[in-house]
Each structure stands twice: as C-alpha cells, then as structure tokens.
Write a structure and sequence with these properties.
With 332 residues, this protein is α+β, with helices and mostly antiparallel strands. It has helices at 10-20, 25-37, 45-49, 58-71, 77-102, 112-122, 129-145, 158-184, 229-234, 315-318, and strands spanning 193-197, 205-206, 212-213, 220-226, 246-261, 269-274, 280-287, 300-312. Helix 5 runs antiparallel to helix 6 (112-122) and helix 6 (112-122) packs parallel to helix 8 (158-184).
Length: 332
C-alpha cells in the first residue's frame, strides 16, 4: 500500500527532520555506508555480510540516547514513566513529519525511533557501565532482528510504525536483562551503604525463658540501600551469610503497605518496617528461608512503611529493637 504523506509547512518538516535524524548526524553514517560498506566490492567481507540496505544510522540514535540517559539524573518511577511516554509520543510526531521530508516511510536517516527505543531498554535497569553497555548491544541486535512479531509493528500508520517497533525492542531488551539479573543475582555495581544508629532501649528485654537481654547501647549497623526496582527485587538473594552489624534497607517510593518474601533466600531474616520518619511500625523476627523454591512454600511478610530493614535472624532482638522506636535515617 502506498504511503500517503501529510501536507505541512516545509519549515516544520525540515526542523522535524533535523531532530529525527539526530541533528542530521545520521546523514554522515548514511553517506559512509552508501559509499563504502554497501558496495559489493571484491574482497569486501564487511559489505557481503551486512544486510542489504543496512545503513547503520540506528547506531547514532541509540548512542545519543545512551549519552542522554547517562547525563540525566535518575528520576523517580513516576517521573521516569512520564518522561518515556512524552519522548515516545514526541518521537511519533517528529517521525511523522520527517517522513514527509525524506518522502519515504521509516527512512534509515530517521533515528528518533532508536532514541526512544533505547531509553525504554535502559530506564528500568541499573544505571551502571555493565548494564548500559549490555542494554545498548542487545537493543541494537533486537532492533535489527525484530523477533516475536515485532517487525509487524512497522505496518502501523505514519510515525507509529517507525517508533513503536523500536519501543517494543527496547522493552524486550529490558525484560531479557531484568530476568538475567533476577536469575543470577549479579550486581551491576556495589550498592550504596549507610550507617544506621540503633535507638537506646530504656529497659532490658526479656526472653521467653525469663532471662534478661540487654540491647547493645548506641549500636550501629552498616546497611546496603536497595533503592531501584531491580535492587529491591534482588535484595539478599543467594547470600550465604549476613554478619552481625550488617543488613539491607529497602527504600520504597511510597509510605504504605509493603510485601516482602523469601524467594531464593539462603538465610533466615528479621524484618523491621519503618515509616517515612523512621518510626518502627512492625517487626517480623526469625522468618525462615525456604527449603525449596515452590511459591506456596516461600514465607511472605507484610507490614506498613516506606522502609524495610532486613537483618539476620535474631539481630532485631540483639539490638533491642521494638515497635514504637525511631531510627534516624541520614540522607533519606
């Protein structure tokens, strides 16, 4: 079916092409591949192995997105989703006008689709060199290959057909790497750590046996911060030990009901739920790790708060923690 190009002012079309081509940067790659790589010269192994018509312009759009994401301060989840939606819709509009400039649907020089697609790939992964590089390489491969019916999205009208297939490739990239991250427990970088000073208890606690347990005065523990969805999903999975004086603090986006579970845990834990002011709302002590990984056999813990502190089983009692106390949360 022949594409019907929209009628609009040439100035708007040219400016859209300027943006959609990455400030006309894709034109340089287009000319380079046209002149050298796509000529079937004898002995030119590169040109013989490249897909016919491939210009490599998408590399430029993906690279610009990579630089943009590195320089952008990490936004909250809501701001991240709003930004991605705005960029995607802007890319559709810009690509639609740019197609009028090039007089061709999804012209190779239009790279705003790769810009939007790569952002969807990287936005939900740890912002580390390892995962930035992995998402870039995998996104480029999937964007060229377009598996699982993604190529059919190119048939959508106007700029939607240009952009949405790249967004789908980006989402597939994020899903593959997120699954790999959750399955292996590999950390892209060391997690940020802070020191939490425990409140002093006015009176000693009593064990069930009647024996007194005096909490350690002014005790402090070093905790890793699980801030991102990926860090919270991974948590303390596959850790074989958690020494006394160490723990993990989960930082959620809101103060309210939270659910934790012991998937892939190898140690027993105490859970301390804290509201946004560090006030302890609930403590679940001695939660056992699963003997197998069937979901119905895995312990689940529920409480209210914005933060959840995980320490080794028995540590909450040793530190004298009790509901109603407050822990100072520096920098949070």
């Amino acid at each position: 079916m022949k594409t019907k190009f929209l009628k609009t002012k040439f100035t708007a079309v040219r400016f859209s092409a300027f943006l959609a081509s990455g400030f006309f940067g894709s034109h340089l790659l287009y000319r380079f591949t046209e002149k050298f790589l796509n000529k079937k010269k004898k002995g030119n192994i590169v040109s013989l192995t490249l897909k016919k018509g491939w210009k490599g312009c998408g590399l430029w759009g993906s690279f610009l997105a990579l630089i943009f994401w590195i320089l952008l301060p990490t936004p909250s989840l809501a701001a991240k989703l709003a930004l991605l939606m705005a960029i995607t819709l802007g890319a559709v509009f810009t690509a639609t006008l740019a197609e009028n400039y090039y007089r061709k649907k999804d012209d190779s020089r239009i790279v705003v689709d790769e810009f939007a697609g790569y952002l969807w790939a990287a936005a939900f992964l740890p912002k580390t060199p390892v995962f930035l590089a992995a998402s870039f390489i995998l996104f480029r491969a999937l964007d060229v290959w377009k598996p699982l019916g993604i190529r059919r999205l190119e048939k959508l009208p106007h700029g939607f057909g240009c952009v949405i297939d790249d967004v789908a490739s980006g989402l597939l990239t994020a899903a593959v790497l997120a699954f790999f991250l959750a399955a292996t427990g590999i950390q892209g970088r060391p997690m940020e750590k802070i020191t939490l000073h425990m409140p002093n208890a006015a009176t000693p606690l009593r064990r069930a046996s009647g024996a007194e347990l005096r909490p350690e005065a002014a005790a402090a523990i070093e905790v890793e911060l699980a801030r991102t969805p990926q860090e919270r999903a991974r948590g303390l999975m596959f850790r074989k030990e958690l020494p006394a004086g160490e723990g993990m603090l989960f930082v959620f986006d809101y103060d309210g009901p939270q659910a934790m579970w012991m998937k892939n845990m190898l140690i027993d834990l105490d859970f301390v739920f804290l509201d946004e002011d560090g006030f302890m709302t609930a403590i679940e002590a001695g939660v056992p790790h699963p003997q197998n990984q069937n979901d119905d056999q895995i312990a689940k813990v529920y409480g209210n708060g914005k933060y959840v502190l995980e320490v080794g089983a028995g540590q909450a009692e040793r530190l004298g923690l009790a509901v109603g106390q407050t822990i100072a949360l520096p920098g949070l």
